[in-house]
Amino acid sequence: MIIGKGKRVENSSYSNVSGLNHRLAKKYFLQTYAYTNLDLPLYFNFSNLLKNVNSVISRKKGFDVLKYRPHIHKDVNHCIFFSKGRKYAIRPQEIINPVIYISLVNLITQEENWQKVQSRFEELKNEQIECCSIPVIKETNDKKLKAAQIFTWWKHFEQQSIQLSNQYSVVAHTDITNFYGSIDADTIAWALYGKEKAIENKDNEELFGNRLSRLLKSMRYGQTTGIPQGSVLSDFIAEILLAYIDFELFKALERDNIKNFKILRYRDDYRIFANDEKVCDKIINTLLSKLTEFNLMLNLKKTQITQDVILSSVKPEKIRLWELMKEYPNLQKEILVMYKFSKEYPNSGALQTWLTDLYKRVIDGEGLRENENIETILTLIVKLMLENQNTAPHCCAIISLIWQDLSKKEKKEWINRIRKEIGNKPSKGILEVWLQRLSITVDKSIKFDNPLCNCLQNKKVKLWNLDWLEDENVKQTVLNSSIIDHKLIAKLMPIIEEKEFSTFYYEK
Questions:
Q1: 164: DSSP letter
Q2: At residue 16, what are phi and psi to the nearest 5 degrees?
Q3: SS3 (DSSP) at 82
Q4: Rounded to whole angstroms, what are the CA distances from 119 to 40, 231, 303?
Q5: Average pLDDT score, the chain
Q6: CA 97, CA 462: separation in Å to the nearest integer?
Q7: How many C-beta atoms surround the C-beta of residue 375 within 10 A?
Q8: What is the pLDDT of residue 82?
């Protein structure tokens, strides 16, 4: 698979985490790349924190995080909001409280419980509804893990969709509205044991499924609805529920004698293949009915049925990107076209791909032409970044290239200008984190409001509410475990390197 200019991602197959034994699964979930999938600068590393918290908890026989009643406290997790590209439309991503995270990992990867999860996945499998999104294994860093997951999506979801055009003439697309935010934690136990058995045993506090549900609720201020989004562990837990929904859907369709179809599911996105629109319509209605049993809803605005299986198999922004990525007279014109593209496809992966390609050309001396107006180019890139926050790493990297000839004073003026434009938006967190990376080699004394930014100056910054935690030893372990690699910071260059932001970067 070619990504950008002259870069290739290895076309190997990746096994998924459900195939690991319980010890290796625990090791996997204790890595930074499994703990948070936020695109943070490389000097953020949570592995030491997780290792220390796991070590101190393991030495305490019978440690039970639930007895401290975290559910009656707010802000147990650290939340960062992202703009979705529309005014007032934001979504939260959470860095789970490390004490609760370790408790979740220990519970799920306990040998008996892990075997239950593995056997349950096998029991719920069926040939006609294929899951393409179980988290994959790639023992490297978070960037390579994301690349592996994206390659899995490309191979098993997009490419297989195209191949299915040989067998089916109609495809329906749909997804679940606000899936992670709508999950009822108690339904995780349904997925593990079946609804009837889970309800019969709902008062058994020691039952694995019930403890799992209680831990999920413990970081939601006691709410039953919603699980944190932003970690591989959350994705994995969600897949247990989705596998059960798939199975219930399959049984319902089997009872209705609906056979000639194929469904590909990537997390909460469904592609339904058939040879008759009426069959697709029937499957969508059956899925809708099943989801209501779990208090979930289909996104009807995104639900569509089409006879163009091939074109609908590829995201429209990808096709448009291929049409637009060509040689432009100058950088300013290219960024203007890119900005127009972002209006139609905000925060898209295609936009990140284009920005990465632009970075490579600029650093190779092909992008910035003689007599181009740096002020105008910086203005455009900043505007693009503010309206497409997922591109903050890419845009900051490009800014670090464009402003090389500016004085330190001019760079500080630009940083302050960007900070002013960010203002007090609830979704400014990731912007400040990357603006700090940009400013580190200009002036380390520049302060930012975001707690993650403050971690660079003070290792005891309280990212998570720990007031509920009466065990002082565990609490101090959290507070004293730095999540910053200061040695790496000392080696940072003024130009943000490709390996710091590109998902598909690899060492030559």
A1: G
A2: -110, 165
A3: strand
A4: 35, 23, 33
A5: 90
A6: 11
A7: 13
A8: 80
